[in-house]
Structure formats: C-alpha cells, structure tokens
Amino acid sequence: MASPLIKLNDGNSIPQVGLGVFQTPPDDTVRAVATALDAGYRHVDTASIYGNEAEVGEALVESGIARDDVFITTKLWNADQGYDSTLAAFDASLQRLGIDRLDLYLIHWPTPAKNTFVETFKAFAHLHDQGRISSIGGSNFEPEHLRILIDATGIVPAVNQVELNPRLQQEELREAHAQLGIATEAWAPLGQGALLDDPTVTAVADAYGKTPAQVLIRWHIQLGNIVIPKSVTPERIVSNFDVFDFELTEQDMSSISSLGDGTRLGPDPRTFN
Fold this sequence. Notes:
By secondary structure, this protein is an alpha/beta fold. The chain is 41% helix and 15% strand. The chain has an 8-stranded parallel sheet with strand order 3-4-5-6-7-8-9-10. A two-stranded antiparallel sheet has the order 1-2. Helix 1 (26-39) runs parallel beside helix 9 (234-241) and helix 4 crosses helix 5 (143-153).
C-alpha cells in the first residue's frame, strides 16, 4: 500500500511516511534504502552531515524506480550556512545524490547565534526559483526562528522537521505550524527506540497485534505528522511501513499522548550553534 500524501503550502505533496537514514553507515545505506523502496516507501530523508547521500542516490538508481516517483530530502549543514556557501553546498549534495533536482531542502539547524539562517533561506529561495528545488524548509526551527524567516523573506517554509515523539510532543511548535501553514515532520519519532519497551505502548500494540513501532508511527500519522522512522534491519523497515491497515482509537491516542514529559534527546535548537 502507498503512503498517504501530505499537501504542502507550495502545492507540492510529500509522502507522509518515509525512511530516515540518520546514523546509517554508508555501507548499510544502499541496502536499507533498496529494502524501503522495494517495500513501497517513496520518500527518503538524508542530510549532508550524515555522509550517506551518495549511497541514497546509488540505491535510487539501482531500484529502477523513476526519479519523479521518489521524494528525496536532504539538509544543509551548519558550517555551510550563508548565501554563496549554501549554493556551493547544494551543488555538492546534488552531485553526491546523482540527481538534478531536489524535492525538499532543509536548513538543518537555525544556529541562531550565527544569525545566518535568513541569508541561507534566501539562497534556498533562489534555487527554488531556478526550479532546482521543489520545496524549501527548516529543521529544528523554533516559532521565533520561523517568524524571523517569514518576516525577512516573505516565504513560509513548507516543512519544519523537528524532534517529536510521545515524550516530546512539541505542542507549542505544532500550534505555530498550524497557524502558519507549515507541515510538521518528526525526527526520532520512536524516541530513538526508547519508547519501544514502554508498557503503555506495548499494551496498545498487543491489543492490535502490531509492533510498538507500528503503533507509534500510527500515532504520528493520526496527528498529521510526516514521519521518518529509521532502521537498517530489513524486517523492521518493511514492518514500519505496514501501518495503513489499522487505526488507533481516541482513547489509545490519548493513552500514548499521556507519556509526554518533555524529554529531549537532541540539543536545544535555541542554543545549539
């Protein structure tokens, strides 16, 4: 079954469930992406700092699937922010990926102390105007960063990819996204595995005859999040995509949401530079 699509504010659509390749070693990336594409995924999320863009591109070529049928996201690393350096970094990412057009380009972190994300986003807009990127957005942006970006450029990011799972639900940020028309994308959607043994999650999973990961991915889907679970295990990659044949009840959604305690696994975007 194909993933549902999320309509973005620029008119493009993104598959709601994709494969993330954060911390996937290059040697494992080709196999992981190939497994995902074979299972029906049509959305792969990488980043220049992950060091596996070339392998994502290799898997895409080997799959034989038409380029236009797979949604590819990559991200600009912090050291490359700035107008000219962004243009150069983008060219390098496309060369590694082996493609001539990117579906979604994200500023990986706002790095507010550097104060270069507006200039960087203007370079993104230039590349978008050239037709080299379909959609542009941010990653780990807080509401104040988004508003600075919009006020300075007049462009609303299509997507903001943030750490988000039942323990860190980002209610304030999701509300800002809803008001601004920005799609919410969740990284570490399973709490980097920490939630898979949680008794609340396992109880819901047992009731549906599903895995804890499937239940957590379903929770994201029903919240409207774009979700990019990561795995290098073929069985889990396939299983993580088998989430379209059941629906959590309102009670089960609330039960999982009750796990919110604000635990953050990654750095604080307001101070990380």
